[in-house]
Each structure stands twice: as C-alpha cells, then as structure tokens.
Amino acid sequence: MPIAGAEWIKTEIIAIGGQAMVMVAEALDSVTRQEIVDLFRVARGQDFQAIYEQAHTMLVGSRSRAPNESRALMQSVRRLRERFREVEAIDDMFGAEFGHHGSSCTFETIAQRFGVSDPTVAWLGRIVHDLDLKEEADSAPEKAAVGRMMEGLGRMYPDDQRTLPGRGQPALAEL
C-alpha cells in the first residue's frame, strides 16, 4: 500500500476516535515473496508439529493417569486447544484470498466469493461462523450437533484431505 493510502486510513481512524500510526520499513535483505511465504510455512509447520507432539504425549500419558488427575488433563487440553487456535489465527493470513475477511469466516468468504445464494448454504454458514469465531449472536439450534460432528470427524480423520472428501462432504450433505 502506498504511504498516501496508509496516511489516509490513519486520518480516518483518528477522526472516529481511534489511535493509529504509520510506519515504513525497508527490507534489509532482498528476499522474494516466495521465500517469505516458504519461511512462514516452515515456521507454522514447526508450530503445528509441536502442538501435535504435545497432544500425542498427553494422549499416551492419559492412559496411565489416575482418575483424580482428569482435571489437570482437561486443563492441559484446554491450553493446547488455545495454542492451536493462536497458531491457526496466524495461519489465517492477512490478504489471503480465502480466509477471514471482515466479520466473515472462511466458509462465508468462499460462499460470497463464488456467489452462492442457496438458503441452506447461508444457514450452514451461520453455524460455521458461530463455531469458527466462537460467537453466539445468530446461533442455530443445530450448532452444537454440527460442532460435535465436525470434532468427531476431525478426531477420526486428522488429515483434512481425507476427511472432507471422504466423510465430511457426505455428512454435511445430509444436513
């Protein structure tokens, strides 16, 4: 974005009572966009691998835990889930063609981008939105069931490339 555009946005933010600052940075190295993307992917891959290893360690350890240690395990699972969401949010890159845009989740962005106006897709979009963004504003009564179904599929088939075409799409089609 040219500096003039950034300055204009700064002025607009300040005019409505916000705070803004424009900073200009120059790259010290002449790296290509692809090199930056590759570095990003390596870093996120390491983050997700660390989460996977921690989850695996917790799973193996949970088999030998005493029943009175279940609370500690649940707390560990919650912390790991939160870490996953943090890394996932980083992975939802600014400027990505399909991702969160404005208040829309990725599902809604894709439906909007391709002009899908089917009422069933809009209904499912509200459910996915609420599940993805942890919102309750427009919750459909089916939200909990759909959430549990997707969690179950994710546990049974951790590889998204197998889950969606093999089990996810037929399950969603039944909704």
Order of helices and strands: HHHHHHH
Overall, the morphology is: extended
Number of spatially distinct domains: 3
Secondary structure: number of strands: 0
Mean pLDDT over the full residue set: 77
Helix content: 55-70%
Distance between the terminal alpha carbons, to the nearest Å? Answer: 43 Å
Summed up, the helix count is 7
Helix/strand/pairing class, anyone? mainly alpha
Q: Which range does the strand content fall in?
A: under 5%
Radius of gyration: 21 Å
Weakly predicted, low-confidence segments: none
| Major sheet description | none
Q: Can you offer a commentary on this structure?
A:
The chain has seven helices and no strands. It is mainly α and 175 residues long. It folds into three domains: 28 residues, no CATH class; 61 residues; 69 residues, no CATH class. The mean pLDDT is 77.
